[in-house]
Design a protein that fits this description.
The chain has a single domain, classed as Barwin-like endoglucanases. It has a 9-stranded mixed beta sheet. It is built from 1 helix and 9 strands, in the order E-E-E-H-E-E-E-E-E-E. The protein is mainly beta and 125 residues long. Strand 8 and strand 9 form a beta hairpin. The termini are far apart.
């Protein structure tokens, strides 16, 4: 049996850009994508911590080191600049297959501060 499990996550990223007049997607700094094992065009689920919105879109590679988290198209209506979001990618795994997710916790400027490959980060709310 296959199961859908968390594969990679960028935790508490800050929305730096919104562009309603662009095809729907999320633009993510290429370095953050690599650290979280997220690929360009991959389906991701996004949760806005500020307003509780949950939605799906696909990823566009942003400039390495830019620390961009940009919501585009209809997804841009789900967030505000400065909102904190969690970006999650999932994979199909067989029972017993290694499924330890790559978790990247970022600071307020989207710089990676904690990298984990198997457990949820402990953060203060």
């Amino acid at each position: 049996m296959f199961r859908i499990l968390l594969k990679g996550k960028i935790h508490r990223a800050t929305v730096t850009e919104k562009n309603i007049h662009y095809e729907g997607s999320v633009t993510i700094d290429e370095e953050l994508m690599e650290l979280a094992d997220i690929e360009e065009n991959e389906l991701v689920q996004i949760v806005d911590i500020n307003n509780g919105a949950r939605f799906e879109t696909y990823v566009i590679k942003g400039e390495r080191g830019s620390r961009i988290i940009g919501l585009n198209g209809a997804a841009a209506r789900m967030v505000e600049l400065g909102d904190k979001v969690i970006i999650m990618a999932y994979g199909l795994y067989e029972k017993g297959e290694n499924s330890k997710p790559k978790i990247v916790v970022v600071d307020d400027n989207n710089n990676p501060k904690i990298l984990k490959d198997h457990e949820e980060p402990k953060t203060e709310c």
